[in-house]
Amino acid sequence: MNHHTDGDGVAVVLTDTASDPLTDISRLTEIGRYDLEPPELKTVLDGLATEAAQLLDLPVGIVSIVLDRSQLFAGSYGLDGTWLGDAGGTPSEWSFCINAVRSRGPYVVEDAHIDLLQSDNPLVLFDGVRSYAGAPLITSSGHALGACCAIGSEPRTFTGDEVKSLEQLADRIVVVLEGYVLD
Amino acid sequence: MTTPAVTRNQSNPSAPPTVDDVRDGLRATLAPVDFERVWTEVCANVGVPTTVSSLPDSELDALLDQIATQDRLCKVLAMSWRIRCTAARKLHALGR
C-alpha cells in the first residue's frame, strides 16, 4: 500500500482499490472540501434536480454526490414520500450514478429490466426504476463528485441531444457546488 | 452514451452497518497511525471501549458524529456510513 498526505496534513493509505474512483482518496478528500449542508444549497439543488427531470420529461431528478460506500442525494425531485427521499441516498451498490463517476461520462439505461448490470438491482426490482440517464459532475480540478440524473418508471430511449442537455446541466450544477467550497 | 464494464459490489447493502464495519472501513482508508489516533479518540468521546463490536443505533450514530469531526476525509467517510445506516433502517421499517 502507498501513503500520501491529504489537504489536512493527515497521512492516508492508498489501498489496492485506489484505482476505483469511488474509493480514490483524493476524490473523497475533494468532496470533503464542499459544504453540502446549507439548506439554501439543498433548495437550489432541488431546483436543478427538477430541471433534470423536466429536461427529459421524467418523474424523478437527482443531484447525487457519490461517496465511497453510498450516494448522497444533495438535491432531488420526485422522491417525496418514498424511502429513498427519506433516507437521502442509497448504498453505493445500488447506485446507477457510480457508473457516470467511474466512466467520467454519461451513463444511460434505457430498459433496466433487460440491462445486464441493473436488472437485479433492488431499485429496479422493488422501487420501480426502469430508465436512467446521468451525467457526471466534474469539478474544475478534475474530480468526478457525482452525477446529475433523471429516472423513469418506463422504458425509454434517450437522444444524443437529451444527453447533451443533461451534461450542460451538470456543468451548471458544478458551478453552484464550487460556490460552497470551504476554503 | 457509455455503458462501462463495471459490476456492482456483492455485499449486503440492506443490512445495517456494524461498528466492526465502520472500524474496518476506517482502518482500510487511514494510515495506521491515524487510524489508531482517530479510533481511540472517537471511542473515548462516545464512552465506549476501542474493542467494541456492537452498539445500539444511538451510540453508532454518536460514533459517526465524532468521526465526522476529525478531518475532511473522515467527514466524508462518516457521511457515507450514515447514509447506509439510514437506508438500512428505512428498509427494515418497510420489511425489506
β-strand amount of chain B: under 5%
> Within the largest sheet of chain A, what's the order of strands?
5-4-3-8-7-6
Distance between the termini of chain B: 33 Å
User: Could you describe the largest sheet of chain A, including whether it forms a barrel?
Assistant: 6 strands, antiparallel
Q: Catalogue the unreliable spans of chain A.
A: 1-16
From the N-terminal CA to the C-terminal CA of chain A, the straight-line distance is: 30 Å
How many distinct helices of chain A?
A: 6
Give the helix level of chain A as a range of percent: 25-40%
Q: Specify the CATH class of chain A.
A: Alpha Beta
- What is the ordering of alpha helices and beta strands of chain B? HHHH
| Number of strand elements of chain B | 0
Radius of gyration of chain A (CA) equals 16 Å
Shape of chain A: globular
Over the alpha carbons, how many angstroms does the gyration radius of chain B reach? 15 Å
Mean pLDDT of chain B: 88
Q: What would you say the CATH architecture of chain A is?
A: 2-Layer Sandwich
Report the sheet with the most strands of chain B, covering strand number, pairing sense and barrel closure: none
Number of domains of chain B: 1
Tell me the layout of helices and strands.
The complex is a heterodimer of chains A (183) and B (96).
Chain A lengths: L1 E4 L5 E4 L10 H8 L6 H17 L4 E7 L3 E8 L5 H5 L1 E3 L5 H7 L3 E3 L12 H4 L5 E8 L5 E9 L7 H18 L6
Helix pairs in contact in A: 2-6
Chain B lengths: L18 H11 L2 H15 L10 H12 L3 H22 L3
Helix pairs in contact in B: 1-2, 2-3, 3-4
Fold and architecture overview:
The complex is a heterodimer of chains A (183) and B (96). Chain A has 183 residues and is of the alpha+beta class. Chain A is built from six helices and eight strands; from the N terminus they run ββααββαβαβαββα. Chain A has one domain (38-180): GAF domain (Beta-Lactamase), CATH 3.30.450.40. Chain A has helices spanning 25-32, 39-55, 83-87, 97-103, 122-125, 160-177; strands at residues 2-5, 11-14, 60-66, 70-77, 89-91, 107-109, 131-138, 144-152. Chain A has a six-stranded antiparallel β-sheet with strand order 5-4-3-8-7-6. Chain A has a two-stranded antiparallel sheet with strand order 1-2. Chain B has one domain (19-93). Chain B is built from four helices and no strands. In chain B, helix 1 runs antiparallel to helix 2 and helix 2 (32-46) crosses helix 3 (57-68). The chains are: A alpha+beta (183), B mainly alpha (96). Chains A and B meet through strand 2, helix 1, strand 4, helix 3 and strand 5 of A and helix 1, helix 2 and helix 4 of B.
